[in-house]
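Progress note, project year one: complex with L-homoserine.
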Amino acid sequence: MKKLRIGICGWGNIATGLYDALQSDLLQQLDDLNISIDCIGARRDNPICDYGDIPVFRDIFDIPDQDVDVVVELIGGVEVARELILKAINNGKHIITANKAVIFHHGDEIFQAARDNEVQVLIEASVCAGTPVVKLIKNELAGNNISKVSGMLNGTSNFILSSMEEGMDFDEALSIAKKEGYAEPDPSFDIDGMDAAHKIGILSHLAYGSSLPPKEFYIEGISNISTLDFKYASINNLALKHLAVAKMREGSVEMRVHPVFLDKKSSLASLHGVRNGIEIDTDLVGKVYLAGSGAGRESTASGLISDLIAIGRSLDNNTAVISHSLNVAIKDFDLAVFKYYFYLEVSNEPDIANAINSCFADNNVSVENFLQEDATKDQQVVIMITTGLVNEKNAQVLLDALSCSSFVTSVRLIRIEAN
Ligand code: HSE
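Model obtained:
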């Protein structure tokens, strides 16, 4: 039986989750592989987990010097993690990481170092935790042309939006997500869309060979969503989700992350709570759909163990599972086309509906649906509008025009994702 000796760097929620999961009977019963934790790099102990007799090094940079096959990087962050990973690669260690930020920012450099040193860097847990989208794109769908990858890639955002749909307020939902270990140590990465951006950047690299880091692309989070948006969604049979998209169009990639309305009957719309869902449009197998828990210690442990088993089983035949970037461009977001939802708060003036409609017409944006709420006590009226198809640039020009008009107190938009 092959023995796989690993050193774990980091001893937080994710690392201790991996330790606990590795004790399972299921793994003890693998008849071709024995995974052994030979050392741990941790600045301090963690009261939630006792590591028994395993040697512990207080300097994580000692771990790549130990006699192990794999360094499992679970310290998070970017620059120190990069340094640690590169040291381990240069020492001939295989790498497993759940760290999407370091792969997003330094993936090209890390994968190149891995090729130079003939070691593997496996990153299943970095995108959607244990939901196996990385291997799905990299291996099982390798014979397909992929035209679009889209999904809810941030468990915290999906948890918050589904909780708000059920009437909970934003702050309460966020505090539960923190308590359950879904949110990042700095939750602004979740709610500002950065975490989902890291993940779609990685998936775009796997599907299309875009670089890591990618060129700049559009990123918007969920902090401006209000309860009235859910009312609009319900009236129009839509679901409000936070979506990350990488789509191949005429040789370049349209990459974007933002809230969208989805048809309530679509597969992604039905996913609630911390679940992640991904749709992959392919030429040979059509639409492939995958869903699972996308955050938390158990789900991440599942992704890490799948990489440990992949490395352990490949060591005999030295199959490298690493990739390199191609020179693929990122499409100008101004050219992306959507139907839009405009949410406006306006002063309750006579003929306000005509004034708003004129503003849309003057900017060549057609109105498909117009919904006006009753005036509030302070004479404000909420108007919710669905437009026809229009490109992002025109929508932004209209948004600016509305923001500047004297009768509009506040205005924002949400894109409606086509099926
Ligand atoms: N904070 C992340 C999320 C954790 O909520 O999806 C998993 O990457």
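The chain has three domains: 2-130+298-317, 133-293, 334-416.
The first strand starts at residue 2 and ends at 9.
No further modelling is planned for this target in the current period.
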